[in-house]
Amino acid sequence: MATAARRLGASSAQAVRLKINEIFCSLQGEARTVGVPTVFVRLTGCPLRCHYCDTAYAFHAGEWMMLPDILVQVADYGVRHVTVSGGEPLAQKGCTALLGALCDAGYEVSLETSGAMDISELDARVSRVLDIKTPGSGESERNLWANIGQLTAHDQVKFVICDQADYEWACEMLREYELAARCEVLFSPSHEQLEARQLADWIVADALPVRFQIQLHKYLWGDVPGR
After folding, report:
1. Per-residue pLDDT for 101 more than 50?
2. CA-angle at 137, arms to 168 and 95, nearest 5°
3. Which of 190, 193, 146, 197 lies closest to 170, judged by CA?
4. Interacting residues of 23 by C-beta distance below 8 A, sequence separation 6+
5. Of 151, 148, 199, 203, which Cα lies nearest the Cα of 173?
6. Helix axes 67-75, 95-104, angle to 10 degrees
7. Which domains does the chain have, with CATH numbers?
8. What residues does 108 pair with on adjacent strands?
9. Cα 88 off chain centre by
10. Angle at the Cα of 188 from the Cα atoms of 182 and 189, rounded to 5 degrees
11. Which of 28, 97, 162, 178 could join 16 via S-S bond, C-beta 3.0 to 4.6 A?
């Protein structure tokens, strides 16, 4: 019965199509695997409009692709890490099938999601990078706090910090939800809005149980789409 159900699921997945903004290979610029060659599958569309968004070009532009064709294009790069991103990838219903298919193909898979979409039904093999929106993003009211209860040590939480008020708010969330006991927590300065050194100094002064990060790709290539 389980084998039959698995075949049915695989057959159904073949019919899944997604609107893809771009597929490219670069170094991972953030999170746990920073610096590792990674294939990025960027899905089109996002219901949020963060003030600091650097991928507004993915809101609408893209081409529809069938899931098997996406897998072929990913395989052509010959690397084992794949990140599904956006926009907000979970805004497309087919994203769940894509994540499962990538895991089945043997990739190390991560998902970059805003935290405004339900993550409870995602494949447990996926490392979910949950971007909790700070007040400075303009979208903090969209955070789906029920997602916190779904997090495991395999996942990560990210805060993009715009200013000191954002930092203090993020510290409060860190304590209130005991995030560091659930998974790795990342604090990142909003690029060209908050000085990276300033955020680093705050973290050190407060001895926070978080990982400071910068967007490596922006220091290497600037705001170049597809890198």
Report:
1. yes
2. 120
3. 190
4. 39, 40, 41, 42, 70, 73, 74
5. 148
6. 40
7. 10-215 (3.20.20.70)
8. 81
9. 8
10. 150
11. 97
Token pair 């002064």 is at which residue? 205
- Give 143-205 as a DSSP string: --GGGGGG--TT-EEEEEE-SHHHHHHHHHHHHHTTHHHHSEEEEEEPTTTS-HHHHHHHHHH
CA pair distance 69, 101, nearest whole angstrom: 12
- Is residue 127 within 8 Å of 32, Cβ to Cβ? yes
pTM value is 0.89
Q: How many CB atoms lie within 10 A of CB 202?
A: 18
- pLDDT tens track for 38-49: 999 999 999 899
Residues 6+ apart with CB under 8 A from 89: 42, 43, 95, 111, 112, 113
- Tokens 């499962």 locate to 100
